[in-house]
Write a structure and sequence with these properties.
This protein is about 45% helix and about 25% strand. By secondary structure, the protein is of the alpha/beta class. The protein has two domains: about 210 residues, no CATH class; about 270 residues, EAL domain (TIM Barrel), CATH 3.20.20.450. The strands form three sheets. The protein has an eight-stranded mixed beta barrel with strand order 11-12-14-15-16-17-18-19, surrounded by five helices. Strands 2-1-6-5-4-3 form a six-stranded antiparallel β-sheet, with helices on one face. A four-stranded antiparallel β-sheet has the order 8-7-10-9. Helix 9 links the parallel strand 14 and strand 15. It is globular, with a radius of gyration of 29 Å.
């Protein structure tokens, strides 16, 4: 009996071994083929990322040079008020520029667009910028330790220099999401090898596990280096790899182990966690009221997304919106939020046609004509009319196709939807969005609101924006209003609508609906409407 058992065992062992060998041969060939696919795709994507980064940096350098050349053409060469105002205008109209300075001999700063008060800076490196010897590219460190890239142009026969400073981070490409667990490394260097800036930590070993590409700018001489982990591409072919394992005799064990480990892998994957939360309905709307600061009446609200986790914890959008945009989940998240607002507040908002409800709309969504139909269908069965809907452009990267974006915006406006530019005066939006996109509303950023009444330059900028908006038949909304002194200044400047914590913080749906009804009573009972200071307490609490 024992002999039979031993023979049976040996037969099974041999059978298993033969099966593994038979299945292993095609598996080895398959893995060899798959490895070649990963190598080609990974290298192509890494080279493409480096090229895109060089193109972006070249565009920003050219933009800054145009601003400096414009100042040189206007003979800006002193610290007189007229010349300082010219530098202020150039800095405001050129989003990448953080500061424009007039330099004297030995690189001494004489004044900047901020006046005679400026931060000390130390020159770390300098080299010609391959444009006929007119420009130099400097790397400087300012007093707070931040590194800046400085494009410097000699003027006045070499007696002075005009220097435009740009944050080093603006030269860095967004190859992947912030805090990418896959560890993409990006560095931008001058022609002489000085590091302008970098993303991630440069690997110090195991280079064979990385795809590497370096791209040089033929125009300006700087270069971009990108290092992308092999696992980044391999992860995209995991399905093929698991299919290949089917040919082995242990596929059941492999699949079982994979199924056991999948929940943990999904929890460790931030994109997968966003997908899970979206499917579970954990992204909820919060409403920040927009108030008429002349009459005190409620004009509407901006809808802000919050991530309410199963334990009740609220996560602010800054922690997940960038990843949602880079992963492509922002579209599903945005329209899910719209549908929730329609269900939660549709009956209350719909019967008050004067109320407007604003949604943040990533700029990339305007490059897709299908969103026109999606917006129309979302509100087709809702009491909320399209004429009550405002879409706010929230673009973190420059809009690449202005023609298509303008066409989509025009089509949405044809449905009755109004378009707003959020955070005017910061980021990439600037005046170009106002002039090219044909929007209906501009929203002045909190940074300028904070400085109104205390900083003459900021007040002048706000006045200019208001005059421009009114001339272009645009409405103006001030954001981040935190005290009644700011309210009075905004009134004097001719702004009618505002939002901020002086009126109310972002409110959950139930509290906002109570506020709407309370404001109806206030407006009826009050003979002289006033700004409702009590919004921040009572119902809003």
């Amino acid at each position: 009996m024992s002999l039979i058992v031993r023979a049976f065992t040996r037969q099974n062992i041999v059978a298993i071994a033969v099966g593994v060998l038979v299945a292993g041969a095609p598996l080895i060939a398959f893995n060899f083929w798959l490895s070649g696919v990963i190598d080609r795709q990974g290298q192509e994507e890494t080279v493409s990322s480096a090229k895109r980064a060089v193109t972006l940096a070249e565009q920003r350098v050219a933009q800054v040079m145009r601003a400096v050349d414009g100042l040189a053409a206007r003979a800006v060469g002193s610290c007189g008020q007229v010349h300082i105002e010219a530098m202020q205008q150039a800095a405001f109209l050129t989003p990448p520029v953080k500061e424009i300075a007039l330099l004297g001999s030995a690189g001494v700063t004489l004044c900047t667009n901020r006046g005679l008060g400026f931060s000390e800076r130390k020159l770390l490196s300098s080299e010609p910028l391959m444009v006929g010897g007119v420009y130099a590219l400097d790397i400087v460190r300012i007093a707070d330790g931040q590194h800046m890239v400085q494009l410097r142009r000699a003027i006045g026969g070499g007696r002075h220099d005009l220097a435009a400073s740009v944050s080093a981070t603006l030269f860095l490409p967004q190859v992947s999401a912030e805090d990418d667990p896959l560890g993409v490394y990006v560095a931008v260097q001058t022609g002489a090898g000085a590091t302008i800036g970098e993303i991630g930590a440069r690997p110090i070993a195991n280079y064979a596990n990385y795809f590497m590409a370096s791209q040089r700018s033929d125009k300006y001489g700087f270069s971009v280096e990108v290092m992308s982990p092999r696992g980044r591409i391999a992860a995209g072919h995991a399905d093929l790899k698991w299919f290949g394992l089917f040919f082995t005799g242990v596929i059941v064990v492999v699949l079982a182990a994979f199924a056991m480990l999948m929940p943990k892998r999904r929890l460790d994957n931030p994109v997968a966690e966003l997908e899970r939360a979206l499917a579970a309905g954990e992204f909820v709307p919060y409403y920040q009221p927009i108030v008429d600061i002349r009459s005190g009446q409620l004009r509407g609200a901006e809808v802000l997304v919050r991530w309410r986790k199963p334990d009740g914890t609220l996560v602010l959008p800054g922690s997940f919106i960038p990843l949602a945009e880079s992963s492509g989940l922002i579209r599903a998240m945005t329209f899910d939020l719209m549908r929730r607002v329609c269900i939660e507040a549709g009956s209350v908002i719909g019967c008050r046609p004067a109320l407007k409800i604003s949604f943040n709309f990533a700029g990339m969504l305007f490059a897709d004509e299908t969103i026109i139909k999606d917006v129309r269908n979302t509100f087709a069965v809702s009491p909320i009319k399209l004429s009550q809907v405002v879409l706010e452009v929230t673009e973190r990267d420059p809009i690449e196709n202005f023609i298509l974006t303008r066409q989509v915006i025009a089509a949405l406006q044809g449905l009755g939807v109004r378009i707003a530019i959020d955070d005017v005066g910061t980021g990439h939006s600037g005046l170009s969005y106002m002039l090219k996109l044909g929007v209906d509303i501009i929203k002045i950023d909190k940074m300028f609101v904070d400085a109104i009444g205390t900083d003459r330059n900021s007040t002048t900028i706000v006045e200019t924006l208001i005059d421009l908006a009114h001339n272009m038949r645009m409405d103006v909304v001030a954001e981040g209003v935190e005290n009644f002194e700011q309210v009075m200044h905004l009134r004097e400047l001719g702004i009618r609508s505002a939002q901020g914590y002086v009126f109310a913080p972002p409110l959950p749906g139930s509290a906002f609906l109570q506020l709407v009804e309370a404001m109806d009573t206030l407006n009826v009972d009050s003979a002289e409407p006033a700004i409702p200071a009590a919004i921040a307490g009572g119902v809003a609490a």
